[in-house]
Amino acid sequence: MGYKVDFKQMNHIFEQLSDEYDIYAPKRFKKQGRYSDTDIVRYDRVENIEDVVFDQKSDYPAKEVLSPITQPLFYFTEDEYRESKVNDKKILIFMRPCDVHAMERQNRVYLQNGGFEDFYYKRLQEKVKIVLMECCTGWDTCFCVSMGTNKTDEYSIGVRCLDNELLVEVKDDEFNSYFEDAANDDFKVEFIEKNQIEVKIPEIKDKEVLAKLKEHPMWQSFNSRCISCGACTIACSTCTCFTTTDIMYNENMNIGERKRTSASCQIDGFSDMAGGHSFRPTAGDRMRYKILHKFHDYKARFKDYHMCVGCGRCTSRCPEYISVTKTVEKMAAAIEEIEREGK
Ligand code: SF4
Ligand code: SF4
């Protein structure tokens, strides 16, 4: 069913929904951007439709709702432990198509990887329903069409934001009753068909080419450019790595809490082992690892599609202006060179 509602009606619907749902959406945080007097747009709970930022890509992805940057896991004393609690409400998240695909990739890593389920992720993920934000124009760093993540059917409600009203497509019958007083409309969500950037992801045809690519000098060109800050991975819709820390409340080392915090493969020390060995000591090594993970290794393991969803947030957040799409193009050129030399 399709509907048209003005913001006042939508706020009334938000109020009704909030009995059952916590609603999350991209929200503007004034003067919290990375430069003075700039804002940041990131996911948070919203109570009004006016709080939802439709006209800008969020700086940080929707994954923050399910895998926050920092999260308490459990509390312990000398002889027992207790898991952290979450509230009983279901979760409604406003997402763009690339974020929906990113959640699918996160589900796979947290829930279907090696036969283990991440309890802390699962207890949030199983409560999620999606409000799809129509996204027909994209932004200058987006390349979702190239990654095949520009379209999705996986949503309960789809919305297009006009000046002071919303066009709404309800796919999940559970939500039709909220729109009983709204005018009918034949709205259906549309999808972007072409981004400003097009990227062809190169195929790595065998292990020999892969081994030579890993040794290619292109990676070391990042040693002088990448400052290993990790901003690209924190902003990435699909990165899932985390580390855990025990925080003791006092001098008794047996009383405290365990937290997990997002970690970045781009930061020096990420791959350090006991005994001092590091697998990826240079920024170039770490860049190679990240790019191959997003554009080769994940697909090689799961046999279907690449991990990257083409949201372009890593390019937008990099303080050194390192573009993920330009890096993939460099990798494609290196593969061509390796194949030419091998003939
Ligand atoms: S690698 Fe970059 S473009 Fe791809 S999902 Fe992560 S942030 Fe988005
Ligand atoms: S690529 Fe850019 S954002 Fe990522 S670690 Fe290097 S400098 Fe930081």
TrEMBL record:
Residues 215-247, 298-327 form the 4Fe-4S ferredoxin-type domain. The keyword Iron applies. InterPro entries: 4Fe4S_Fe-S-bd (IPR017896), 4Fe4S_Fe_S_CS (IPR017900), Sulphite_reductase_A (IPR014259). GO terms for molecular function: iron-sulfur cluster binding; metal ion binding. Pfam families: Fer4_22. The keyword Iron-sulfur applies. This is Anaerobic sulfite reductase subunit A.
